[in-house]
Structure formats: structure tokens, C-alpha cells
Amino acid sequence: MSDCTPIFLFGMDRSGTTLLAMMVGAHPEIAVPLATTGMWYEFADRLGNYHNLRTSGDLQRIVNDVAEHERIRLWRTELDLARIVSDVHEGGIESVVAAFHKEYARQKQKRCWANSDIATLDQMHRAYHWFPNARFVHIIRDGRDVALSNQTTPYGRGNIYECAEKWTASLRTNLRMGAILGSDHYHVVRYEKLILDAEQTLTQLCGFIGVPFSREMLNYGASVDERVPQEKQWLWPALKLPPQASKVERWRHEMTVTQRIVFERIAGPLLKELDYPVYEHIPRRLSALFLELLYLLDRGGRSQRFLRKMGYHRESLLERMRRARPD
Questions:
Q1: pLDDT in tens, 155-167
Q2: What is the pTM of this model?
Q3: Which of the listed CATH numbers 3.40.50.1000, 3.40.50.1820, 3.40.50.300, 3.30.70.260 matches domain 7-29+111-324?
């Protein structure tokens, strides 16, 4: 298997990162395991525990510990740890990252590897430091739909106000970094275009990565059972289905005017820069001021934490859907 330029797929939670990873991973040349969700950055922060990989014993220990990590076990692939150790070198975490992904690609008989991780949204500078030749693929979705989708999960990014803050801050930072890296290393995929015109969007993405487009990418649903453990599939109920146009501009019929006002007060300028439709003049509503105050008081999920202390767990929409689904 010849080497290939590392690929990093990322975006804010509920922006379509998993869908994108499934599509890219369905390419006959690219192996994309289940998301590592911050794991590599956590190991990088704890590299001192392995004496910064100064000895062969340190290399063996970190490889063993990574192999036992929940995120790697979710790959559900028999990895040759001896071969991984032989590929790791003393110094930084990057050789560990590459060795595990290369081994996964070998097992899948593919030439290239890609890492899918929403944490790269905040850690792209570190990934670039590890792999200066990497290709970074940032999926962007209308922040209002991101906020709505976050409200359906048990681990969402907080209320709509907090989502607006996070979406705006993270995207602005990454778009600036992407402009510095240039179009050879940074590519934006618009979720809405991926859904509504998947073939053209993926063809452009393949050109950026440096592989020919394959129609297998559109048949990603067939590999869901192989690549996503059954116990995790409830998090993405539509993952086996073709791209769903109903997922685009959900905010038009699911977000109240008051919620939209709160969101656009924070994120409106960036939404407009990205050519999403916004209020030309944001309406003035007393209800929006009250809702914003409630969101501020509930920052960090204070009410949920209080309810948990009282022994009450309020299930998210996805949790309720999972419970209602017949076995």
C-alpha cells in the first residue's frame, strides 16, 4: 500500500461530519474509521506520561493504551499492533496517529487514510503541526439547523444562544486559518450542497483530495452496518438513507421567530457572509429579550444539571426515538 496525503474531516457537532465521513469512506481508495472524537488530542496532552516517546518501551505502552481506547475498539477491526509499533518513531504523537490509521487502511485494503473528528474544529492548528502536508475538509452547515439538531441529542452544545456563539466563533477561526493555509490544503464542503447535489460536491472534493470520483461514495448507506456499531446508529437515524432534502433549512419550519431572532442577533453577520438567508432587519420583540435572558441563565445546562441532582433525567429526542424503536 503506497502512502497518501493524510485527510482530516471535521465540522461542528451535527453539521454532517458523520455523513461526510461515510461518503468519503465508501471511496475504494480511502479508509475512514469511526470518529475519534478528540482522542488523539487527549493523548497528545498526556504525552508526558509516556516520556514524550523517548524509548521503545514508551512506544509500546502508548500503542497498547491507544488500542484499548473505546474509540479504537469501536473501529471493530483487528489491528496488527506489532506492525503499528514498528511504524511509530520517537518524538511526537503524529507517528502514532499515522500508524493506527495506516493499519486500519491496510486492513480495509485501501491506499489512503482519513481521520474524522469534530474536535479538529478547535484543534486544526495542532493537526496541521503534525501533518503540514495534510488536506483539511471542513463541512459547514447553516448554524440555525446545527442549533436545532443539537437540541435533539443527549450531548448537545447547549441551548440555541450557546450554539450561536460556538458556531460563530469556531467557523470564523477556521475560515481564517483556512485562508492562511490556502486552497491546496483547506476545502469547505457546504452541507446543503452535499445533500442537494451530492455527486458534484463529492467530485469537487475528490479533486481536492487527489483521487478520482467514485460512484461508490453515493452508495455509502450499504456500509453503515460494517462501519458503525449497531449500538451507536441511533445517533444518526437517517444515515442509511440517501441524502435527505428535508434536512436542509429545517429552521424555516422548526425554529420559532423568537428563537431565530436570538440566533441571528449573534450569528447573523456570519450567516450573511456565507450567503445564508437572514433577516435584513432583525425584528424587535420583547419575547426574544426574555428568551435570551433565559438562555443566559441556563448557560452550561444549569437546569439539566439541577434536574439530574434531583434524580430526574429528561431524555433527548434521539433517546426517545431509540426507546420507541422496536427491537
A1: 666 689 999 999 9
A2: 0.91
A3: 3.40.50.300
